[in-house]
Amino acid sequence: MHRRTVIAQGRWQKTAGVMFSIALSAVTTSLFAQAAAKPERLTLGQAFDAAWSQQPEVASLAMRRDAAQAHQRAAKAWTPEPPALEVTGKTDRLGSSLGTREYEIGLTVPLWLPRERGSSQALAEAESRAVESRTTAAQLRVAAAVREAWWNWQRAAVELATAQDQLDSAQRIALDVGKRLKAGDLARADQHQADGAVAAAQATVAGAEAASSVARQALAALMATPATHAKLTLAEPYAEPTPDPSPIDLSAHGDFQWLRDRAAVAQGVVALTATQSRASPELKIATTRGRGAAGEAWQQTVTVGVRIPFGAGPRYDARLAAARAESVELEALMTLERARLSGERDTAKARVEAARLQLVAADRRAQLARESRGFFDKSFRLGESDLPTRLRIEAEATDADRQAARARIELAAAISAWRQALGLLPQ
């Protein structure tokens, strides 16, 4: 008997263990399925990183850096161009065939013009800086597009959430009206009004869903992954950090840096062109071995010469004038760009302050509207107020909630625009 009891207990423990393993496996599978089905939450910084990674500037950045480094190495070389090897031979075999022979081998070395090498090095360094500032300016351009699409998506999401709340409230009112209609407290006309409010809310939800889908796909298109991001949801909190209100040097702005480096490149071109008033002179070192006729002894000579081209003339004047025009134009653009960036910074800061005041007023209105909705909801249930008044109060409360939610989005968008005006990338 004791042995049978032990065996039975062992079988029960084994069965229980198997059942526990199956249950644990089922729970684990369910959790993994839920995790896989859970939509990914996207932040503004992630959206920017994804959009920037798809830009052509990213693909060409490494090659542009290599080109700038190659220009720097070329500017530091001993000669402006590589030396050239010359090999010539002279014979009278096709004519009198007296045995005249002459062979020459020489090396031609281009020479830097005065100040040309230093100007070339300065230009190469300016081009290297321009590569980096060009990348920063491209990032700001992408950031502006991503921020605009992002906040449009945020606005659409707020409209959708508010419309869904309005629909839920209208459905609750319609359900309450239906119960009171059966009890004989309300007329069928009241039911029609309540059902009409539900239908209007459903139409609003449909429009908000369409607008949200369009805004989401617009953002996904910038990220170049519309299929992957079709199920993305917004991450909380969705506001960027408020920038430091202290004045920021606009010279550090990416757009201004790009323009300033372009101007520096143009100035470098002017300086280099000014030194290149003629083609590069050449130093020639050659040795010649020859004889006048058959039977004579071979003679060897050494030749050292310098080739100095004449001035370029009108062609040089045209190149110098064009380079100076480009430099003057970029200098003028720098003045305009500084004024534009300063105006955008001040406008963005003022917009943030105005958005803060609007948010305070919208929150106050929403609070009062919610309290009024509670009062009239209780009054309607007690039969002290009619349905049109109840629907009007509900519509006012919904509009107040929408305005408050929209005001929060507008404040966050204003802060984002302020950061954009300061040349700060999304976080």
Description of the structure:
Mean pLDDT is 82; it is low at 1-39. This protein is 69% helix and 10% strand. The protein has two domains: 40-76 and 112-277 and 312-421, Outer membrane efflux proteins (OEP) (Up-down Bundle); 86-110 and 279-311. The two termini are 73 Å apart. It is α+β, with helices and mostly antiparallel strands and 427 residues long. The strands form two sheets. It has a four-stranded antiparallel β-sheet with strand order 2-3-5-6, with no helix packed on it. It has a two-stranded parallel ribbon with strand order 1-4. The radius of gyration is 40 Å and the shape is rod-shaped. It has helices at 2-37, 44-53, 56-75, 116-182, 188-223, 254-275, 314-381, 387-421; strands at residues 41-42, 84-91, 101-110, 233-234, 282-291, 299-307. The longest helix is centred in the last third of the chain and has 68 residues, at 314-381. Belongs to the outer membrane factor (OMF) (TC 1.B.17) family. InterPro entries: MdtP/NodT-like, OMP_efflux. Residues 338-365 form a coiled coil. This is TolC family protein. It holds the Pfam family OEP.
